[in-house]
């Protein structure tokens, strides 16, 4: 499969893999693209079923930094397989990427992070009982998760935000399986556990990336207050609308980070 990618952009060696979340796929417009490959042409790559997840690999540059952009992910809830993103993430490592930079849409557990806010993820909580490494051979299965979200890269993201005059928080992301949203009682429990944002992705990809030897950095866009934090219902339409509205700000942050990646 690496050959299938390499043949489209001979000699191209990306440094950073960027994984775009719900409603955030528009970032590819910032990439000076050299090749665009539908996931369907890459063995093992998933076919995302969530609209707004295009399912394309874009190879190119942001500033001088060579990047591989995964435009769209498959989620655990789509198939019941937590390792849906195994092939793309391992391909990124094989291509020579050093970092997996993830984005996602998330619910905010903090009143000081209203919809539209950005949050750099400093750690995650996975109490789902599910792990993408289930069934892996004994080789390297016990992956260390201390500093899973690289602290140096997190600081660089926050510095890029400051340099671009972009308000950006930092905090802990908790993974819930979905696809139903959380109950208010689950969100109260998540607050007690120390979470700042909630979502249905990212943690399994981080585990897979650490297993593949990639460093991880991640940014969430708050698309709503989590269940029960404020009155009212939660819906996927809001996720997409607010994510789209915040995509420009997130794009500026990612560009700032990538251009100065070195
Ligand atoms: N919960 C889970 N995932 C989400 C949310 C939420 O409130 N908002 C966007 N993705």
CATH topology: the name is: Rossmann fold
Query: What is the averaged pLDDT score?
Result: 94
Number of strands: 9
Quickly count the domains: 1
- The largest sheet has its strands arranged as 5-8-7-6-9
Q: Indicate the low-confidence ranges by residue numbers.
A: none
Write down the CATH class: Alpha Beta
Percent of residues in beta strands: 25-35%
Q: How would you describe this protein?
A:
- The protein has one domain (2-74, 82-132, 153-259): Rossmann fold (3-Layer(aba) Sandwich), CATH 3.40.50.
- Helices cover 29% and strands 25% of the residues.
- It is built from 7 helices and 9 strands, in the order H-E-E-E-E-H-H-E-E-H-E-H-E-H-E-H.
- Strands 5-8-7-6-9 form a 5-stranded mixed barrel, surrounded by 4 helices.
- Helix 5 (184-193) links the parallel strand 7 (168-175) and strand 8.
- The two termini are 28 Å apart.
- The site of hypoxanthine has 14 residues, from strand 5, strand 8 and strand 9.
- Residues 105-107, 176, 181-182, 198-200, 223-224, 226, 234, 239 line the site of hypoxanthine.
């Amino acid at each position: 499969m690496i050959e299938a990618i390499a043949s489209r952009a001979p000699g191209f060696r990306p440094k950073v893999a960027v994984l775009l979340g719900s409603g955030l796929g528009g970032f590819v417009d910032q990439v000076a693209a050299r090749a665009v490959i539908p996931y369907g042409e890459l063995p093992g790559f998933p076919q995302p079923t969530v609209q707004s997840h295009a399912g394309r690999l874009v190879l190119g540059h942001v500033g001088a930094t060579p990047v591989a952009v995964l435009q769209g992910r498959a989620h655990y809830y789509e198939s019941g397989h937590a390792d849906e993103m195994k092939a793309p993430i391992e391909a990124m490592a094989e291509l020579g990427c050093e970092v997996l930079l993830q984005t996602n849409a998330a619910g905010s557990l903090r009143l000081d992070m209203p919809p539209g806010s950005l949050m750099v993820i400093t750690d995650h909580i996975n109490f789902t009982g599910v792990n993408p490494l289930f069934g892996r051979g004994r080789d390297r299965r016990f992956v260390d998760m201390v500093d899973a979200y690289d602290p140096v890269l997190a600081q660089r993201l926050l510095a890029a935000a400051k340099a671009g005059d972009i308000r950006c928080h930092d905090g802990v992301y908790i993974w819930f399986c979905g696809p139903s949203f959380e109950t208010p009682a689950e969100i109260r429990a998540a607050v007690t556990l120390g979470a700042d944002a909630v979502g249905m992705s990212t943690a399994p990809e981080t585990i897979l990336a650490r297993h593949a030897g990639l460093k991880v950095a991640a940014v969430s866009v708050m698309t709503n207050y989590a269940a029960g934090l404020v009155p009212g219902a939660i819906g996927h339409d809001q996720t997409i609308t607010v994510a789209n509205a915040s995509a420009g700000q997130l794009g500026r942050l990612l560009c700032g980070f990538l251009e100065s990646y070195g």
